[in-house]
Write a sequence for this structure.
């Protein structure tokens, strides 16, 4: 731990994105002025395929850790995992109050309970158009519509001017919960003058406007009455409006609603308790009733829309579920996005559902999903309402940030005031001037089980190597004075070749090791480093030549 | 090897798909009548992500192997890997003549050379509208357009009637090479009467018509003149029409063409030699000239469009290429499909190209790629021209086959004559009746390096397990009479935890193993099976409790 007083107090306003710029996920940005820091969002990312065995990825908060006593609050725009998911890890190191709307904090509380952190954290519920003071900052929450209810943008008033952070948003003129994106407040700040706008870049490649969430309800109303058998709707459990629409469509067809999936049950309970979800009396039915319900009265709402192998939807598709066996006439609606990287898994899921005889609707063939992010025309609208002096595209892969900066230039922000920052850049503002002034240490921290950050590049590289051609362990005991082989070589492999059929091959491997040792001088043979290197070299060549594989070769020389 | 004469001669016509039904890839079907068998296509599949370390997947040809002497020929519809890629492996077991068009066999010959099989195989070039007799079968080749030139459908005349196999096709009314899908021949067979149609289901989910290949040339002509710097076009090297259009567009802008990628160089050479590709004099330039060429005169045509990590396009994107360093003003055109499963890798590639300052065009934002497969209206057209008695959807995932069968019903094929077969089903026809009558052994064979089929489920499961949490090897030498620990325990890990920082943790692991051994009776301690099981059990619990990981635990007990 660095001594706090050795850390200088910077001049002007500094905005430092720690995650979310150049990637979708782990959104986190900090605002620093004098001795005050506030944080916007604290998200995680689900691992990419090459991050073998990793459970979550969170931003590296080294910069924040060293300034823990200056953090005046964490402001949460909404309750998605890529905005709140890193909290249980980050709150083990810093413990400022958390500010967010009721549902956002409802989801946060549930998460903190899982990690036994509930009760240790100060959760402050804020309503849209309310303002919170935190050190020198004043933060107003501005309602936005998104694929989760109770989302907000933030207007952050600083001594250098107002910065608006959109959070994740779209402009839905007919939202299911009636909560419109508060364009008037954006306009008010625009009239007053805004130093900088940080805006969601996710859908910057899409032309036009994003469709209203209500379109999905209309699709449900078209599909549901045509379904002769059971209906299964798979959606993200945080998408409360989506759940509401599935419930309403079920009610209109006289179907019971059964909830499936741990997070679906938990989030529906939270949303109902806080008044964000209205389920008509008598319609909600326990999953245990499923076998007794007539098929045409069943509407299951479930998680597992990404084809997660352990989810119950995947088990249903593989005909490996206790309570439900799909049949001809049943219908599955995947009411969610094909998240990039999951396309193949979801496609496999759909094929299995067809094998079971079910009909499947998904976003590629039907309007059973709409995005929660603004498309080009909405992004232009916000830019024109807010009229920021500076523009900082956030929440996107690198190409999204580039294209969002171009869009801002199209509506009149000068190129030199479109700041294309990446994680760790220090965006500095002083006296109406601004730019990327510095960099701080940043990066990704891998979480594997309970371990935080102990899985680094070396471990991942080893896992990748192991995954490709497996591992061969060679055990030899050598007398450290005479160089005589006392034991072995024993050869054991995993993930390399069929072990029961390849005894001959492993015997040949042993012989090669013995021959190699025999060809070495006594000096070399009593130098374990030398022996290991030679065994590796010879076997690498042997495996490559005979079967073109490159397993991890682990020679173990026993001191005896 | 089963004795040939124990294998019965079946009655009627039997069609047995060995691959490609219920999956995209490894297309292979056999036709059997009396003692004669012919094979249509012989493709491979590239491995899915869960097939760790696998290079290729090919169909299991057990059924064919046992009837090797009855195989009268392998008929190839076109030269894509999923139709010819398994040949080098299959031809090691059976060696009938191969029939195909000139370019198809040109690509096959190149492939056989790689495996030192060239010269051992009888390659018979066939032209469209020519007919080949093979045993009791007569096979006419019918020109079709596709994303490779010189593709054909097959009309297979059998004693039970004519079966038409479309191969991969689209109906391109303005093909770049002028070779139209030969609708007249399809119609002629339709008029005569067709027993069964087997048709490409890839694009059955797409409404309307697939765009003409020429659209891509128009997109090139629009983009090329606007590019201030270098142009890099990434495409599949087998897509000769695409290469032709890139060459033509380059020529019109006064750019030199540089070919990059081993298969691009090879396939262009084959196509030029056979007259399928016309490159104007003086335009083709060696890659070594690249550093000396003015930027606005460069058009590189390269492989690597799927973001393959070792391809030179990936290295260019990572700024790790010897001859080329991208700059602002350079343009990359990904002129190919985002193959399902590769989306994330391609998306990462695009982001890196933007980081280098390049502009990127791809199929999601521009018409720089069109599909080679027929959409719904084209599929209906072929069905109506051929008017088959039976319909068998092929070349598709399971949902595609289901939807293609429905499409056939829409145009009038009775439901009971739409045969929804999967790999290994025996589709039997006799006296105008037909149906799925039987099943034969089938499956997928994994190729890893030189090994054919020696990587099975156990090895893959081990690789997956290794990839997730790595491996912990525990070495102990125990006196087999006294149960005394003579050596160790030594603990070595790979892909598990940071080794340099976790000595303490591994020491604790050793202590637990010692304590476990101390707590065992002498009888148990001298029973290696018992010791291994106990060490595994105790460590599994320890790792799970302390860091929630589940590595492969490999206890090695040395006999001493």
């Amino acid at each position: 731990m660095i001594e706090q007083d050795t850390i200088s107090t910077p001049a002007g306003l500094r905005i430092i994105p720690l995650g979310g710029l150049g990637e979708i996920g782990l959104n986190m940005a900090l605002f620093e002025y004098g001795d005050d820091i506030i944080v916007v969002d604290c998200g995680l990312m689900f691992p990419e395929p090459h991050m073998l065995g990793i459970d979550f990825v969170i931003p590296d908060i080294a910069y924040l850790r060293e300034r823990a006593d200056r953090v005046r609050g964490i402001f949460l725009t909404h309750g998605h995992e890529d905005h709140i998911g890193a909290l249980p890890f980050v709150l083990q190191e810093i413990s400022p109050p958390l500010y967010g709307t009721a549902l956002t904090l409802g989801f946060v509380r549930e998460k903190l309970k899982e990690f036994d952190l509930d009760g240790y954290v100060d959760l402050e519920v804020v309503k849209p158009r309310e303002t919170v003071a935190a050190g020198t900052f004043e933060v107003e929450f501005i309602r936005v519509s998104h694929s989760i209810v109770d989302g907000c943008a933030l207007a952050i008033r600083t001594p250098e001017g107002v910065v608006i952070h959109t959070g994740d948003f779209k402009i839905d003129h007919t939202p299911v919960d009636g909560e419109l994106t508060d364009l008037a407040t954006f306009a008010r700040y625009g009239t007053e003058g805004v130093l900088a706008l940080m805006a969601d870049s996710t859908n910057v490649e899409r032309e036009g406007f994003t469709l209203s969430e209500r379109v999905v309800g209309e699709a449900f109303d078209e599909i549901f009455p045509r379904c002769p058998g059971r209906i299964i709707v798979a959606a993200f459990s945080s998408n409360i409006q989506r759940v509401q629409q599935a419930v309403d469509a079920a009610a209109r067809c006289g179907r019971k609603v059964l909830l499936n999936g741990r997070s679906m049950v938990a989030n529906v309970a939270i949303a109902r308790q806080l008044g964000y979800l209205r389920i008509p009396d008598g319609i909600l039915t326990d999953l245990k009733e499923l076998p007794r319900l007539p098929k045409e009265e069943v509407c299951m709402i479930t998680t597992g829309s990404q084809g997660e192998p352990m989810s119950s939807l995947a088990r249903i598709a593989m005909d490996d579920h206790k309570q439900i066996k799909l049949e001809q006439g049943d219908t599955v609606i995947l009411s969610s996005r094909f998240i990039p990287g999951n396309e193949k898994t979801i496609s496999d899921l759909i094929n299995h559902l067809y094998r079971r005889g079910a009909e499947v609707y998904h976003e590629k063939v039907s309007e059973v999903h709409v995005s929660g992010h603004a498309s080009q025309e909405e992004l232009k609208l916000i830019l024109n309402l807010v009229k920021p002096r500076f523009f900082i595209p956030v929440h996107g892969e690198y190409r999204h940030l580039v294209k969002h900066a171009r869009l801002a230039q199209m509506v009149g922000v000068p190129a030199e005031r479109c700041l294309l920052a990446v994680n760790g850049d220090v965006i500095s503002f002083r006296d109406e001037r601004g730019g990327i002034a510095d960099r701080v240490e940043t990066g990704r921290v891998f979480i594997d089980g309970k371990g935080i950050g102990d899985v680094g590049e070396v471990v991942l590289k080893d896992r990748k190597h192991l995954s490709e051609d497996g591992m061969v362990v060679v055990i030899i005991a050598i007398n450290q004075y005479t160089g005589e082989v006392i034991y072995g070589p024993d050869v054991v492999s995993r993930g390399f070749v069929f072990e029961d059929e390849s005894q001959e091959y492993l015997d040949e491997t042993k012989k090669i090791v013995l021959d190699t040792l025999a060809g070495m001088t006594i000096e070399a043979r009593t130098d374990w480093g030398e022996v290991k290197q030679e065994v590796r070299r010879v076997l690498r060549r042997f495996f490559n030549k005979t079967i073109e594989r490159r397993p991890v070769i682990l020679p173990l020389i026993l001191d005896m």
Remarks:
- The CA atoms of residues 466 and 552 of chain B lie 6 Å apart.
- The longest strand of chain B covers residues 485-494.
